[in-house]
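Could you please review the protein record set out just below?
***
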Amino acid sequence: MPGYAKASSCCYIYERSGLTLLFTIFKLFSTTKQLFPRSIAKMNAQSLLRARMATQTIARRGFSTTRPRFDSPFHYPEGPRSGLPFNPKTKFFWLRYWTFMTAGFGVPFLMAIWHTYKA
């Protein structure tokens, strides 16, 4: 077709005088064709069978847990705030926290301003 270029399986792009118009062509089903093909029904049946077999396999597996080893030479601290690399219970924690947050949020903006005025 002159002036047309195929963009995908159902769309054609028509270019005329620098303007690009997108015409979508819909494939209409006739009344003789099936709206729900047998291949889709077969595919759904296979996926349902596969899902049922997977759940049966999971139910058959014997899950077990290992009991904790209390004879281990390593003891890690437990409880709240034990995994943090800082102590939030100190007197000036709030000052360090807000300084870090302000610097982390403000540095990109300050860099952008500096680069804008530098150019």
In short: The chain is about 40% helix and 15% strand. Residues 7-12, 17-32 have pLDDT under 50 and may be disordered.
